[in-house]
């Protein structure tokens, strides 16, 4: 199987397929994603989320902010299972979604855990990480607020944020309060979307 042009092992494919089946089942009772996207879960959610790990492969400790339906947190945790190393910490304050995420991680054998807490409390529970992810959560300025505690503790930590067509305006707004280095990765799934890779974050005001 190929995902975004990269080969995926049979074991990882099986895990992804099982997760999609769980996601489809649970989506009927709780709001895990926009209903309009559920008919194209593989492309709109799985492939899109897989880009994060594919941009930064290896056995890292991840923190996924506002994990929701598991994108990209569960997908990252599934890829880490193939490495038998690394860990994904999924932060989701909604208890119903957190219950789904725990089931998904357990049944797929993914390398991750769920913290049903507010994002602001995350650094107290997960003191350090090498990578941070978020998808469809908040604007870049707010995401920098969330990420700052981890990125101050480890200057090598990098953040990967999915953004849509208005990303340039979000960058301009964030630069009013933050200094950071930035790499823009064109999405291979959505033509008007990017993944912003942020590092060397520092508060200006």
Automatic annotation (TrEMBL):
Primary site of residence: cytoplasm
Q: Which UniProt keywords apply?
A: Cytoplasm, Methyltransferase, rRNA processing, S-adenosyl-L-methionine, Transferase
Tell me what organism the protein belongs to. Rhizobium mongolense
Asked whether the UniProt record includes Cytoplasm among its keywords, one would answer yes
Question: What functional role does this protein have?
Answer: Specifically methylates the N7 position of guanine in position 527 of 16S rRNA.
- Lineage of the organism: Bacteria, Pseudomonadati, Pseudomonadota, Alphaproteobacteria, Hyphomicrobiales
What subcellular compartments does it reside in? Cytoplasm
- What chemistry does it catalyse, as a reaction equation? guanosine(527) in 16S rRNA + S-adenosyl-L-methionine = N(7)-methylguanosine(527) in 16S rRNA + S-adenosyl-L-homocysteine
> Which Pfam families would you find in this protein's record?
GidB (PF02527)
User: Recorded E.C. number(s)?
Assistant: 2.1.1.170
Q: Which SUPFAM superfamilies match?
A: S-adenosyl-L-methionine-dependent methyltransferases
Q: Tell me what this protein is called.
A: Ribosomal RNA small subunit methyltransferase G
Which EC class does it fall in?
transferase
């Amino acid at each position: 199987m190929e995902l975004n042009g990269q080969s995926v092992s049979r074991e990882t494919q099986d895990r992804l397929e099982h997760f999609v089946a769980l996601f489809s089942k649970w989506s009927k009772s709780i709001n895990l994603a926009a209903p309009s996207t559920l008919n194209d879960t593989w492309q709109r959610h799985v492939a899109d989320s897989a880009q994060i790990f594919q941009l930064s492969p290896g056995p890292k400790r991840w923190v996924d902010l506002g994990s929701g339906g598991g994108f990209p947190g569960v997908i990252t945790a599934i890829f880490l299972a193939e490495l038998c190393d690394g860990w994904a910490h999924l932060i989701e304050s909604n208890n119903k979604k957190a219950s789904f995420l725990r089931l998904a991680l357990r049944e797929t054998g993914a390398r991750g855990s769920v913290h049903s807490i507010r994002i602001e409390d995350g650094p107290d529970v997960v003191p350090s990480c090498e990578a941070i992810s978020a998808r469809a959560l908040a604007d870049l300025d707010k995401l920098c607020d969330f990420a700052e505690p981890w990125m101050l503790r480890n200057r090598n930590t990098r953040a990967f944020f999915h953004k849509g067509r208005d990303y340039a305006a979000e960058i301009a707004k964030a630069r009013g309060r933050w200094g950071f280095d930035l790499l823009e990765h064109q999405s291979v799934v959505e033509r008007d979307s990017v993944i912003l890779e942020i590092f060397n974050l520092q508060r200006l005001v």
